[in-house]
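Schema walk-through. Below, the input block comes first and the output block second. Nothing else is stored per chain. Lengths vary across the set, and this one has 261 residues.
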Amino acid sequence: MMDERDWAAFKQKLKAKTEIDLDLYKEAQMRRRIGNLVTRGGFDSYAAYFDHVSKTKEEFAAFIEYLTINVSEFYRTPDKFSQLEKEVIPELLTRSPKLNIWSAGCSIGAEVYSLTMILKELTPTTKHRLLATDLDIEIIAKAKAGIYTANELKALDPKRKEKYFTKTDDDRYAIKSEIKQCVEFKRHNLLKDPFEKGFDLILCRNVVIYFTEEAKDKLYRNFFASLKPGGVLFVGATEAILNSRSMGYENYKPFFYRHPL
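--- output ---
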């Protein structure tokens, strides 16, 4: 029976196995998303569904990928990436010739690799630090592999596609090692684990959609503390931080928030 006791048992099992705390996510939306899986699978409770998917590594990995909403593509929101390339990064480089950058909730790696290409062209001889983290270890493995569909590259400049990718036998695209080797991937839980400090740029885009307002508030405050003076937080095109000033940010550009100098 899908009642409160069943939901509580499901949350407890999930947290024990994965460290994902659903109390930090919007309950109605998460219950609906997971409930769709439960009913589609013909199960009568959340707990029964969890016990089933936990039996095989592949099914559980697919469930976690669904749960953590790993949807991404290269140059997602191209106008914002153009602004990042032409305005934000050049200004950051005037203060820090070697940038320390974090892609938080990196998913399949498309955004951090997009950023790596930009830096390769703006500063071809400089070795920047690019850290990419995600909660889902299976998705991190996909990001490290660097194999993408044509659809995931649809917003990418054809010249960059030709320069930085090799087409595979199954009509997918493998990113070249000169880009892959620039990125350090790690597992990290944004709602639980400590944050590093001293970043020039943090990207956290299309990650917080199901977080509670309290969780989002804490996350953005932690990002602020992780930025250098003058550092910038880049969020998704539907994720304006309405109380950014109370956290200490300057409204630098739409969807870019800056730690004051």
